[in-house]
Design a protein that fits this description.
heterodimer; A: alpha/beta; Rossmann fold; B: D-Maltodextrin-Binding Protein, domain 2; 2 domains; 4-stranded mixed sheet; 16 helices; 4 strands; binds adenosine-5'-triphosphate; binds magnesium ion
Chain lengths: 253, 410
């Protein structure tokens, strides 16, 4: 296989929080991985593993305490604005402005990405079509169901047609049908050449979606590779078994 | 910094705010209700007191004076007083405000007038009570006139000129503009209200735009857009400032409307005070404002609103939830009210040191301005220092907004 330039590359990424009660917290500790263009990288970890912190560093929301990351060709520490312009970030705790309509929400982020009105209108129409938002596009968000909100969130993440998608537990709190819809949509994004980094604690989503998986626990990336590589290395078929083995064991890489 | 991004954020926040009932209430309804209410209360209350004192002469009683029938009779027909026989419990009645004052005519009073014997007329009253004070004034006037007449007669009997017992006159004359008199009481209250409203105006939007956005989880998304943090925070700041200034503008508008509609021409002329000449002193409690001074007040309130908006936004930024932000901002209302109250207290006068105390300085300056007094040097100092504080607060706000430990507190 010809080695391509990675779209996302984390090198020894580390984040230390200084917490009043707990003192120093190494939320992310020496995490390195790469994600090739057009691939989905799954970050699998339990609560408090460091997924959100890692993704926030990749999205330039917080600065790494150590190590570095390159996203879409730009260093997160050196060129944060360029990175943000090329990344669509969907936070786990994401929410929308209740008093805006879905269309206004999408337009707002389009404007923040410097798109002109014509382009915003075209993108809105396209995304509404793809996500099936036609009947609630002009309704205020505070009247939406969770699924409608998540669709709106995804639409505003994609408004600038980013090369890289950073999705932090995008199916959190959704019912089975809505979650399946999201998973299908992420797969379609990959088909269109987007690079996706996807954090979750749901094994089945990883199995369905991800080209490569990183198992993160206690801030450390304990295992990394394609699903097949991981299965082979740990002698288990079931991802959950692999996860428990890795997370329970000591620093198995 | 990209102006385009700042405006994008500003426009979105404006649209959001205009759809929010709570912002609308604090921006339009509060000023629209508070201003006429205050005017109505102050205006009519003062007017009523003065008018009723005139329409219903205070009830006074006479003690003694059996052997001074002429004086007693003259007193009974004195306009502006209702004289009743003194009841036994007259002291309690004064305390109970059923009797406004009691005058005690000493025994042999009329005789003493012709015999040149010293005599003392005593007036019992309720200190500080408006109607009692009015009654005392009337009684005092009556007896002063009697004394003058007696004196004139005595001088005439001895063939002495009228100036004999009065080598010179002492006259006091008010040279402060008539508005100045009002400025110290009611006039000082208007700018104080404007300052207070410019602060209460920032509280809700500041909480909503920072702590609220953090709590609801939209801030993280906003920060992941290419817009710089500077542009985002400036857009939000501009919105908070807009709400604050709109509140002030609405208050001014509502004030003007209530003045016009109320039909009380209080601005400038103090005409009402003149009409009520009988109780001219009470007129000082009537609102009288110099319209030009009000313009000066607004100019001073501008940088103050910037200061308030920046401080409130920063404090709200430190909070994780809206509730927490409220807890932080509520005591700040006191911080704003205290200097404002100190400013309207009589006796606290503007000087170069106080001109540097934020909020208090503007309050004191406003007191002068609405009285038509323009202490230019101090005004410059106040405007300048408030601008410096406002700039520093805004810089601090921008700095804190760039800090991830503040944005992502856990
Ligand atoms: N701003 C912060 N200050 C202090 N500690 C933090 C901060 N953010 C995260 N942490 C800590 O870092 C660790 C990793 O948190 P993180 O949110 O990255 O985990 P996560 O994998 O996303 O978990 P979850 O499944 O709960 O979302 C946790 O122990 C968390 O308490
Ligand atoms: Mg998380």
């Amino acid at each position: 296989m010809i080695r391509t330039v990675p779209m996302i590359e984390a090198r020894h990424l580390t984040k230390v929080f200084r917490d009043k009660k707990r003192g120093e917290v190494r939320a992310v500790d020496d995490v390195s991985f790469t994600c090739e263009p057009g691939r989905i990288y799954g970050l699998l970890g339990a609560n408090g593993a460091g997924k959100t912190t890692t993704l926030r560093m990749l999205a330039t929301l917080i600065a790494p305490s150590g190590g570095e990351a390159v996203v879409a060709g730009f260093g997160v520490a050196t060129h944060p604005a360029e990175v943000r312009a090329r990344v669509g970030f969907l936070a786990a705790s994401t929410a929308l402005y209740g008093r805006l309509t879905a269309r206004e929400t999408i337009a707002y982020f389009g404007q923040l990405h410097g798109l002109d009105d014509a382009r915003i209108a075209a993108r809105t129409a396209q995304l509404a079509e793809e996500l099936g938002m036609g009947d609630f596009l002009d309704r205020r968000v505070d009247t939406f169901s969770t699924g409608m909100k998540q669709k709106t969130s995804i639409a505003r993440t994609l408004v600038q047609d980013p090369d890289v998608l950073i999705l932090d537990e995008p199916t959190l709190g959704l019912d089975v049908m809505a979650a399946r819809g999201i998973v299908r949509f992420v797969r379609e994004c990959r088909a269109r050449g987007k690079t996706v980094i996807y954090s979750t604690h749901i094994m089945s989503e990883v199995e369905k979606l991800c080209d490569r998986v990183g198992i993160i626990h206690g801030g450390r990336l304990l295992a990394e590779g394609t699903l097949d590589e991981l299965r082979e290395r740990h002698g288990e078929r079931d991802l959950e078994e692999i996860f428990v083995k890795v997370a329970g064991g000591e620093g198995v890489v | 910094m990209k102006l385009r991004d700042t405006l994008t954020v500003y426009r979105k926040e404006l649209r959001d705010a205009l759809r929010d009932r709570r912002t609308l209430v604090s921006m339009f309804l509060v000023p629209a209700v508070i201003m006429p209410a205050i005017f109505f209360l102050f205006g009519t209350a003062t007017y009523q007191v003065v008018k009723s004192a005139q329409a219903q002469p205070p009830v006074v009683a006479v003690l003694g004076g059996m052997d001074s029938p002429a004086v007693k009779a003259a007193l009974e027909v004195q306009p502006g007083l209702v004289v009743v026989p003194a009841p036994d419990d007259w002291r309690e009645r004064i305390a109970g405000k059923r009797l406004r004052a009691v005058v005690e005519i000493p025994a042999g009073f009329e005789a003493s007038l012709t015999e040149h014997a010293p005599a003392e007329v005593r007036i019992y009253h309720y200190e500080g009570e408006f109607k009692s004070g009015y009654a005392v004034g009337e009684l005092r006037r009556f007896f002063t006139e009697l004394r003058e007449r007696t004196l004139a007669r005595r001088l005439e009997e001895r063939g002495l000129p009228a100036g004999f017992a009065r080598p010179f006159d002492i006259r006091t004359e008010n040279v402060a503009p008539p508005e100045k008199v009002g400025g110290n009481s009611f006039g000082g209250f208007i700018p104080y209200l404007l300052i207070l409203l410019s602060f209460t105006g920032v509280i809700y939007p500041a909480i909503d735009l920072m702590a609220g956005e953090k709590e609801r989880g939209t801030l993280e998304t906003l920060l992941s857009s290419p817009a710089s943090r500077l542009d985002i925070v400036l857009g939000k700041f501009l919105l908070v400032l807009t709400v604050s200034l709109t509140t002030v503008a609405c208050s001014l508008l509502s004030m003007t409307v209530s003045l016009v509609v109320g039909g009380i021409a209080m601005i400038g002329s103090g005409r009402m005070a003149e009409q009520l000449s009988g109780a001219a002193k009470a007129g000082s409690a009537l609102p009288s404002l110099d319209p030009l001074g009000l313009v000066g007040v607004v100019v001073l309130v501008l940088p103050l609103a910037v200061l308030f908006a920046a401080v409130a936004l920063t404090i709200s930024l430190f909070a994780r939830t809206q509730k927490e932000a409220q807890t932080y901002l509520a005591p700040l209302v006191a911080v704003v009210i205290l200097p404002a109250i100190a400013g309207v207290l009589p006796g606290v006068e503007l000087d170069s040191t106080l001109a540097l105390v934020p909020v208090l300085n503007v309050t004191l300056a406003c007191k002068e301005l609405v009285s038509g007094v323009w202490p230019w040097g101090q005004l410059a100092l106040i405007f300048g220092s408030t601008c410096v504080y406002a700039g520093a607060a805004l810089a601090w706000c921008v700095r804190m907004f760039g800090r991830e430990s503040v944005l992502f507190r856990s």
